[in-house]
């Protein structure tokens, strides 16, 4: 039995694929090194991320898969649910070991599963793009905190680069404790973790860090929402279908009314 560990990055996972083929030692399990437990049985192989090797694996996949299928593999990595590494590895191994395209081979259950994961992650990406609400800070930065079900921050950056190209902004994922910062030229991923704060407090700004007009803007939006909302036309079931409750925390109109 072979237990592979890697640094948790997508490139690291592709390096695991390269290493497994080089050794002809197929993994029993693949885990991030910070989560891996020592095993009394089998061999543990600690893989160091190699950009060149990872690039060779990705180039090989590009020659055999459509752009949609490549996206699906990356989305499965961002899915982050238990066992996603083996799911990706099994998919990649089938791609390299099959003489024909595997994209429609639903006799392999993980092919269909990867497609379904793509839809789940894409849906979360779309909702984050729709529901993220920025708040203006005292230094002119537009800031938003999110906690998506999946790691979609890398997927939504381009949307906000295009939509808010003329202003500095930052989006912080409080679940995964990292953020994206746009400085009017390019976007970089940053760590904002404060060891003194609990996970629920990470990424939250205090009221004195926001621009003095921010509360007024939120009040105006709430008043506007109240006026355009027609009680007689309420349809709670349809409303929940389009805006599930877990997204209400992002919406100003769903917060306690400001005075």
Structure description:
- The strands form 2 sheets. Strands 4-5-6-7-8 form a 5-stranded mixed β-sheet, covered by helices on one side.
- It contains 8 helices and 8 strands, in the order βαββααααββαβββαα.
- By secondary structure, it is α/β, with parallel strands linked by helices.
- The relative contact order is 0.08.
- Mean pLDDT is 86; it is low at 195-199.
- It has 2 domains: 2-123, no CATH class; 131-254, no CATH class.
- A hairpin with a 5-residue loop joins β4 and β5 (142-146).
Please specify the SSE layout and strand pairing:
Elements: E1 2-6, H1 10-23, E2 29-32, E3 43-46, H2 51-64, H3 67-79, H4 84-97, H5 109-131, E4 135-136, E5 142-146, H6 153-163, E6 169-173, E7 178-182, E8 187-190, H7 214-228, H8 236-242
Parallel strand pairs: 1-2, 1-3, 5-6
Antiparallel strand pairs: 4-5, 6-7, 7-8
Helix pairs in contact: 1-2, 3-4, 3-5, 5-6
Shape: globular
Trace the largest sheet across and list its strands: 4-5-6-7-8
Strand proportion: 5-15%
Tally of distinct domains = 2
Give the SSE string. EHEEHHHHEEHEEEHH
Structural class: alpha/beta
Residues in helices, as a percent range: 40-55%
Provide the residue-averaged pLDDT. Answer: 86
Number of strands: 8
Distance linking N and C termini:
63 Å
- Number of helical stretches of at least 4 residues: 8
Radius of gyration: 22 Å
User: Quick one: biggest sheet?
Assistant: 5 strands, mixed
Which stretches of 5+ consecutive residues score pLDDT under 50?
195-199
Protein name: Probable DNA metabolism protein
Organism: Pontibacter lucknowensis
InterPro entries: DNA_repair_put (IPR023875), DUF4130 (IPR025404)
Pfam families: DUF4130
């Amino acid at each position: 039995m072979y237990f592979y560990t890697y640094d948790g990055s997508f490139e690291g996972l592709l390096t695991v694929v390269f290493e497994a083929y080089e050794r002809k030692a197929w993994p029993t399990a693949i885990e991030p090194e910070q989560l891996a437990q020592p095993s009394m049985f089998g061999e543990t192989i600690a893989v160091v991320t190699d950009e060149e090797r990872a690039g060779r694996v990705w180039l090989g996949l590009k020659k055999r898969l459509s752009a949609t299928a490549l996206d699906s593999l990356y989305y499965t990595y961002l899915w982050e649910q238990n066992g996603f590494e083996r799911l990706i590895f099994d998919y990649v191994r089938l791609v390299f070991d099959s003489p024909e395209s595997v994209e429609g081979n639903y006799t392999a259950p993980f092919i269909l599963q990867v497609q379904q994961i793509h839809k789940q992650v894409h849906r979360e990406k779309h909702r984050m793009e729709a529901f993220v609400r920025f708040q203006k800070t005292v230094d002119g930065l537009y800031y938003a905190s999110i906690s998506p079900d999946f790691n979609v921050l890398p997927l939504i950056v381009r949307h906000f680069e295009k939509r808010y190209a003329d202003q500095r902004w930052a989006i912080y994922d409080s679940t995964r404790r990292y953020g994206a910062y746009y400085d009017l030229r390019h976007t970089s991923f940053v760590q904002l973790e404060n060891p003194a704060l609990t996970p629920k407090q990470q990424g939250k700004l205090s009221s004195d860090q926001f621009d003095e007009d921010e509360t007024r803007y939120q009040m105006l939006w709430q008043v506007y929402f109240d006026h355009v909302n027609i009680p007689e036309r309420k349809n709670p079931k349809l409303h929940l279908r389009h805006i599930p409750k877990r997204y209400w925390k992002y919406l100003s109109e769903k917060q306690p009314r400001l005075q």
